[in-house]
Request: fold
Amino acid sequence: MPNSNTKHFKALIREKLSDKKLRNIVKKATSHSISKRIETINNYIPEWEQLRDRANFIRSKTMQNWEFYFEQLLKKFRENGIEFFYANNSSDACSIVKTLLFSFGVKKVVKSKSMVTEEIGLNEYLERNGFEVTETDLGEYIIQLANEKPSHITAPALHKSRQEIGELFSEKFNIDYTDAPEKLTEFARLILRQKFLNADAGISGANFLVAETGTIIIVENEGNARLSITLPKLHIVITSIEKIVPTLSDALMLLKLLPVSSTGQKITSYVSFIKKPLQSIGSENSQKIVVIILDNGRSKLLKNDKSRSILYCIKCGACMNNCPIYQSVGGHAYGSVYPGPIGSILTPWINTLNESKDLAYGSTLCGACSQVCPVKIDIHNQLLGIRKLSIENKYSPLIERVIFKLWLLSMKNFKLFTLLSKFLNFLSPLFQESGLKIPFWSKYKYFPAPAEISFHSWWQKEVKIKERINNV
Amino acid sequence: MKINLFIPCIVDQFAPKVAISTYKILKKLGCNVDYPFEQTCCGQPAFNTGYHYEARICAERFLKIFANSDYIVSPSGSCVAMVKNFYQELELNPEAKSIYNDLKIKIFELSDFLVNVLKVEDLNANFKAKVTYHDSCHLLRELNILNEPRKLIGSIKGIELIDLNESDRCCGFGGTFSVKFPELSTIITEDKVRNIELSGADYVVANDVSCLLNIQGILKNKNSRIKTLHLAELLAMGIENA
Reply:
């Protein structure tokens, strides 16, 4: 698997935690998104919870009957003159793109933001094969310049301060340092305009694929996607199987939820609806659109009643904004392409469970993610599901399995439970000053001494004896 | 109507005062209270870590002990949520399953029971202090209990209830999470403690001992003057003062 390094989750977390500046940037940016989201919902969308129920219904219906809608979509693609490929995995998807680019004589590619291309490691792959690839979303462009990975699914450069971006631009382009966002944006715009004009192909993702009409819907704020997909003669859409929605009205319904959940915007600056390739009047040379749909383990989820809801995701990023873990360490700590709660439940399905199971344990199960998810994915239950699978596969350390066996022994045998309880109570005075020492915990936090008298003992003394006296 | 107390194992061993307070509050309200004596743990630590077999054995044992309860009341949002919402995820034996179906609507967290079943919002309690309230995750998001504890606290004479910034943000405990990821847990708890300190309260109140132990873990290390208090303790002390 390219682009995944989840094995080192714990080490990465420690590294990120020591970076106080990073923590402040991430907390500030995510807190801003949280308050904007709440503000918009409170001010404009009183029917928010009903919309979520409706969205959940649409998504669950679509994923349950995925093959039906998929066939419908393909038929429409054919009618509309859109070429189509199904890629089973990352390497298939990459080689399809390469073949296409070669056959069209493409040298320069502009890209608009797409997490699926991150998932398949497309940029590195194309660059290795001699193509020039330019990210045109400002956040993605910054990340590309810095040779980093996105740390958030909708705000890829969320982890960077504007000072860092100023320094990056100054270093890369040899210009005077400025951290004024409008100046930096203007500068990037000048460069990117040339890239758009010179590009032979544009690669984008897709937010929705409408089965009823074959429409590709792309949501964005900068207009870069629209330029990427209209200026070059070849437009390649790389997306994943769960982006299908049955009808245009379903898509519009989901569009009411997506920007609000993401940035608190009622609607993004641009929403493009692409149905057919652009026809140049009087020219043979009209545009070509190719859609590549990536599976990469997702179809396993279609057949899985318990976990299918993971595919409902419309990639808004609200779960990461609201996650206390994500807020504390940022997206890079996860080592997965998709960070945050949704990444922790999706990654084990597109990667291997053994390598990515730790992600699901890196959660307090507080449920803040499920509470804000616009399509009502039961994210915290899915985290529990991954943990269950991990234990069933015996991926947990032996010592932990032994501890839980012993724990069960003392919980199901009341005599043993009482004995241990009395022992704890007996030890209580020893720990009154220092507190109880618990491995790992006590390095950072105090833990109180056990009580001298447990509630069980209190009850026996106070209540049962009194009852007996009263009865006599 | 008999109430069966469900006292989480952590309360039993580390905060029995919370259980005693719960008992006293219910007695004061004239309830017939019993404590099914052989109870141990509901199975949550195993369930949350992925050990469904171990959790199921605990759950089946729990259900047997509490079968035929009129009401089950517990001073913990988290453990009530485990029984009420998460037992259905376990492959319970048929007997346990039918007890579960009966009990899942009879089990209540303390503040929920007081306000929504007994319809008591004012306990005529008296306690002079500035307090702030932390929403425990399972209580808020699994059981949807938001206003009940605030109503009860607000009814205490002499009390000033101060809003806690980010009151619904997790305290960073998360059971075995706090042991598997101690540094990360600590950072989140420190955020919580910072907000508690900013509130200017003398006490931070919550309905789960586990959250309170976790928050206390940092307060104590900082030698903070702020004390943690379970809602049941606060109410019971207030009743005694009245």
